[in-house]
Design goal:
The chain is α/β, with parallel strands linked by helices. Among the domains are: 1-29, no CATH class; 68-316, 3-Layer(aba) Sandwich (Aspartate Aminotransferase, domain 2), CATH 3.40.640. It is built from 14 helices and 16 strands. The strands form 4 sheets. A 7-stranded mixed β-sheet has the order 4-12-11-10-9-5-8, with helices on both faces. Helix 2 runs antiparallel to helix 10 (301-317), helix 6 (183-193) packs parallel to helix 7 and helix 11 (320-341) packs parallel to helix 14. The protein binds pyridoxal-5'-phosphate. The site of pyridoxal-5'-phosphate has 15 residues, from helix 4. This is Glutamate-1-semialdehyde 2,1-aminomutase. InterPro entries: 4pyrrol_synth_GluAld_NH2Trfase, Aminotrans_3, Aminotrans_3_PPA_site, PyrdxlP-dep_Trfase, PyrdxlP-dep_Trfase_major, PyrdxlP-dep_Trfase_small. Keywords: Cytoplasm, Isomerase, Porphyrin biosynthesis, Pyridoxal phosphate.
Length: 420
């Protein structure tokens, strides 16, 4: 059976044939690829083809697929029992490791996904401040909990409008939405509503509208503005955490968030999420404090084993310089080819994260990203797929270079890109 046949079969029993919408290829058209196995930078498909993977399971696989030490840690943990719903030593060790690698975090609570981490972070911020409202940025994705599935409404100073059916307006009324990189808009909202706002939540480097970096002063401005009005600052580092160094972006940039959410890399490919902060803030969580949060599989020993080994390898091997060099080689190559051929695009890149934006002008927020040529992105996606390269099947996503990629992989990508 090939991908097309599997997809037909799945569509009868799974809505849209997928367990997460972007996998349906609606952004690029065509039939989704069924993956069979992966090793390092390469995956094998149900079509009998081999692809060099630049999606990396949307971010967790910074060490590449099925890294031997991680697989070994997982099998050893699994053999000892899949779940206990009771405490295990490895949870304490893992929390110690996370807290030591992120000095801003005294305590960490483990959950099973990034969505759950952010949901908990927002509840915690509300519990700590006794306030209801939050401010988020257009184009930042924080998982699919009700009040974060929100797009900006017509007026900045009114609550947002949900971007999903089935979300209660009372949930999104609590949420202000500002354009990313627009500190003046934030200051305006906080000036009028600052005493009602529990938290400002942001992806410090945005990765869910393509790669958009914070402009100088933006995050510093958020830190100052939230401190001024008594709101907490939440850095959602589900993508950023351990991406550019063996710590958070917050630690690397010297900007201290009150609450940090983690996911993706910290699970090494297994389902995990985490909320971290100071002892004072984290003590509001049950059972120490009144903010409830729980999970049958929270701190699952198999997931924690994968995360533990992944963070240890990142700490000990620090592949970040290598990844940055490969990422830059890729982006520079794309930009050079685009210039030579007069293509209307540019490639944004930071470390292993990259996004070819199909317009020349820089992208500093969601409106800019939406102004890109999505048809041209779809052509690029299928061209690269036909040549053996898997990139995210949407123009609003970040692609990833991992520690398992080689210079030869990058050069092969560029050779194929040159034929676009
Ligand atoms: C992926 C992501 C999430 C959601 O994580 P899930 O594990 O998919 O629930 C939240 N925030 C950011 C910034 C993400 O990139």
């Amino acid at each position: 059976m090939n991908s097309e046949q599997w997809f037909d079969r799945a569509k009868a029993v799974i809505p849209g044939g997928v367990n997460s919408p972007v996998r349906a290829f609606n952004g690029v058209g065509g039939t989704p690829v069924y993956f069979k196995s992966g090793k390092g930078a390469k995956v094998q498909t149900e079509d009998g083809t081999e692809l060099i993977d630049f999606c990396g399971s949307w971010g967790p696989l910074i060490l590449g697929h099925a890294r031997e030490e991680v697989v070994e840690a997982v099998s050893n943990a699994a053999a000892d029992g899949l779940s206990f719903g009771a405490n295990t030593a490895v949870e304490a060790e893992f929390a110690e490791l996370v807290c030591s690698l992120i000095p801003e975090i005294d305590m960490v609570r483990l959950v099973s996904s990034g969505t759950e981490a952010v949901m908990t972070a927002v509840r915690l911020a509300r519990g700590v401040t006794g306030r209801r409202k939050i401010l988020k940025f257009d184009g930042c994705y924080h998982g699919h909990s009700d009040y974060l599935l929100v797009a900006s409404g017509s007026g900045l100073l009114t609550g947002g409008i949900s971007s999903s059916a089935g979300v209660s307006p009372s949930a999104t009324e609590e949420v202000f939405v500002a354009p990313y990189n627009d500190l003046a808009a934030v200051q305006e909202i906080l000036k009028a509503n600052g005493d009602e706002i529990a938290a400002v939540i942001v992806e410090p480097v945005a990765g869910n509208m393509g790669l958009v970096e914070p402009e100088p002063g933006f995050l510093e401005g958020l830190r100052a503005a939230t401190a001024d009005c008594g709101a907490l600052l939440i850095f959602d580092e589900v993508i950023n955490g351990f991406r550019l160094g063996p710590t958070t972006y917050g630690h690397m940039s010297g900007i201290k968030a009150d609450i940090t959410t983690l996911g993706k890399i910290i699970g090494g490919g297994m389902p995990i999420g985490a909320i971290g902060g100071s002892t004072e803030i984290m003590s509001h969580l049950a059972p120490l404090g009144p903010v409830y949060q729980a999970g049958t599989l929270s701190g699952n020993p198999v997931a924690v084993a994968a995360g533990m080994k992944t963070l240890e390898l990142l700490r000990d091997e620090s592949p970040y310089l290598k990844i940055e060099i490969l990422g830059k080689r890729l982006a520079d190559g794309i930009n050079r080819i685009a210039a030579t051929k007069g293509l209307d695009l540019h490639c944004a890149q930071r470390g292993g994260m990259f996004t070819p934006f199909f317009r020349k002008a820089p992208v500093r927020n969601l409106d800019d990203s939406k102004a890109c040529d999505q048809k041209a992105h779809a052509r690029y996606f299928h061209h690269m797929l036909d040549h053996g390269f898997y990139t995210p099947p949407s123009g609003y996503e970040v692609a990833f270079v991992s520690a398992a990629h080689t210079e030869a992989d990058i050069d092969a990508f560029l050779e194929a890109f040159g034929k676009l």
